[in-house]
Amino acid sequence: MKKEDILAIQQLLAAPKKIAIIPHRSPDGDAMGSTLALYHFLLKLNHQPTVISPNEFPNFLAWLPSSETVLIYENDRANCTKVLQETEIVFTLDFNALHRTGEMEHVLNKLTVPMIMIDHHQKPDTFATYTYSDTIYGSTGEMIYNFISFLDKKELIDKNIATCLYTGIVTDSGSFRFPSTTSTTHRIVADLIDIGIENSEIHNLLFDNNSYNRLQLLGRALQNMKVFSEYKTSYITLSQKELDEFHYEKGDTEGIVNYGLTIKGIHLAAIFIEHRDENIIKISFRSQGSFDVNQFAREHFNGGGHINAAGGKSYLSMKETIHKFEKIISKITI
Is there a domain that residue 334 lies in? Predict the structure, then answer.
C-alpha cells in the first residue's frame, strides 16, 4: 500500500467516526472474516463501525465473533440505507466493483465520503478514494493483517480479530492447499496461533459441521457430475428442484466444485446451480495449472475472480447454459 495513502488513512482514523464495512453479496468465509476482523479492530480505536452485508451470510459462519451485529441490507433496506447515509468512511472488503454488492450499489454510488478498498481480485474498478489491491495475496484476511500492521497497530490484534482473520485465510486458501498460499501466509497464521486462536476448533466449525441434508445434496451433486476427459474438464449441475428436495440453506454448496478437480487429468471444474428466485444460473469455476478461469468467466459468463478460482452467472436456462459451456470448452485448449 502506498505510504501517502497509509498516512492519509491514519489521519482519517485519528478521531472517532461512524464507519461502514461492506463485504460482497453472498459473502464467504474471507468476506465475513475480514469484515468482522476490521470491525473489532475499529472498535478498539473507539470508532462506531457497522458491518452491512448485501444479503444473508451462510449459517456455518454464524459463530464468528459479533456476527450477530451484522446488518443485512436485503432484510432491512431502510435502516441500512440510513446507516450508510450517516457514515463518515466506507470500507469495501473482498471485492473490487460496486456491482458485487447487488442492490446496495445504488446507495453506495450516491455517497460522497471516503471509500477504502481492500481486495485481492484482478482488475479493480476505480470507485475507492484509497485502494489496497494486490492479487499476490490468497485472501483479504491476509491483507487486513497487513493493513493493521501498516497502521502500526499490530499489538491490538486480539483473539477475536485473530479468529476472524484466520477464518478468512483458511477458507480462501482451501485450507492452505491453493497455489496462492505462501510462506508469508504461514507466518501470519503462526502469529495468529501465538495470539491464541483455536485453529483446530475453527476448522471443525467451518468444515466438519455438516447437516444430513447437506451431505445428501453433496451426494446428488456428485451423481450429477459429468467428465470430459478429452477436454480435461468436469462439471456438476444442481437444479432448483434438487436444492428444494434436500432443503438447501445458504452455504450448502460451498466447496462442492472442488471435487471435480480431484479427478486425475482434470484441469477445469465447474458447478452450475439454478436459483429460480433470481432467474439465473450461478456458476463457480476452479482450475489447476495455467488455465485462467478469471478470464474465462469474464469473457463468457458475466463473472471473474482469480486465475484458479472464479464465479459467473448465466441468464439462460440450465440446458442452454450447459450447451454453451460444452461448446466453448470443445473449442479451447485447457
Answer: no
